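hey m, so remember when u said the tokens were messed up on ur end? i reran from scratch. heres the input so u can diff it against urs
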Amino acid sequence: MKDNEAAHKEEEHNIGYSTYLLVWISLVAFTSVTVTVAGINLGDYTLFIAMLIAAVKSSLVINIFMHVKFEDPIFKVFLTISGFTLLVIFILTFFDYFYR
């Protein structure tokens, strides 16, 4: 019984408050950069830069605050597949919108 419990026991990953504070400060900084970029006319690159910053921010939230960084590899695979599926749906929607 003890071996079975030990096999199913989850590992604890303690992340210090300093890490959470640094991630929060970086999220606030990236939000400030996004607002600044939105006010600057960079032409076609404005949306690309804003989306790149949003991707960095979401990866910080997913990995640190949602603890996906410490999950099993199969969970990460399914998360990646679902993200890719969402991306394909967005791309198909934009093609429909652009060619109407």
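this time it looks ok to me. The chain is about 75% helix and 0% strand. if urs says something different then somethings off w ur setup not the seq
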